[in-house]
Every structure is written in structure tokens, then in C-alpha cells.
Amino acid sequence: MLFDAMIPAFIVIFTIVIMECIATAVHKYIMHGWGWGWHKSHHEQHDHVFEKNDLFALAFSALAIVLFIIGMYNWVIWWIAIGVTAYGAIYFLMHDVLVHRRWGPVYLPRKGYLKRIYQAHRLHHVKNTRTGCVSFGFIYAKPIDKLLKNLRIERKGHRSTRRR
């Protein structure tokens, strides 16, 4: 009986992990690639409630809706849809509420996991350009010292190519 209850939990957790991998790849290769037209709005200062970049959230929401529809006929797909939705909620809280303070209370994490996520995404925005950014994940981030090292290497690389 307990094992039967653990299967849906495993599916949800596994889906969240897979969604982080997918979202990281989408952020790096699509949003900072051919999808820059939408994502650029996220790297620019503005005073709008919404930005073009929010269209990506709508696309992921559509995926969850389709999975729920299919999941009405397949319980595994239903729990995958729950995992995709849970990832979306975690993303919203971490990215839009915590880091960018677009909604909800202002909170500046001072230590631990939340501080690392916060700092990593702030480092991502050090360069408000399509290239040269670090840290593309939303709920996982490399240690800050490694991200700073990557950012320095990226900056040196751009300086050396400009001098030539």
C-alpha cells in the first residue's frame, strides 16, 4: 500500500528534476538563441507588469494542460502533469517572486540554498545580452565561486576577441 503511494510521488519528483534540465536547456539554447526576441524583454529594465518573456510560461502551461487532458486516460501522464505544474509553481516562486520581485513580498535570502539561487540568477543578469551569460537553471545553481570564475573567463574571452 505504501509503495503504491510512493510511485506517484516518485513520478512527480522525477518530473520536477527533468523539467529543471529541460528548462535549463530551453533557457540557454532557445531563450538565449532563436527565442531571444521574446526573452530579451526579461533582460531589459521596464515598468510593465508583464513582459514578452512571459509567453514562455504560457507555452509551458499549455504543455501541462495537454498532459492533464491525456492524463485523464493514463494515470502516469496525470502525475507527470502534476510534476510539470509543480515545477511551474516552484519556478514562479523562485524566479518571479524571490529573484525579480515581480510579485509578492520582498525577501533577500542571507544564507543557504535560496541565497545561492538568488545570487546565481543575479549573476545571469550581469550581462543583459544574448551571449556571455552564466547560470541558466532556475532551481539548481552551481556554486557561486564557479559561476564568478566562468563569468571572468567569459569577460576575458570577449576582451581578447575585441582586441584582435
TrEMBL record:
The keyword Membrane applies. The keyword Glycoprotein does not apply. InterPro entries: BETA-OHASE-like, Fatty_acid_hydroxylase. Keywords: Carotenoid biosynthesis, Membrane, Oxidoreductase, Transmembrane, Transmembrane helix. GO terms for molecular function: beta-carotene 3-hydroxylase activity; iron ion binding. Residues 13-148 form the Fatty acid hydroxylase domain. One of its GO terms (biological process) is carotene metabolic process. The chain crosses the membrane at residues 6-31, 52-70, 76-94. Belongs to the sterol desaturase family. This is Beta-carotene hydroxylase.
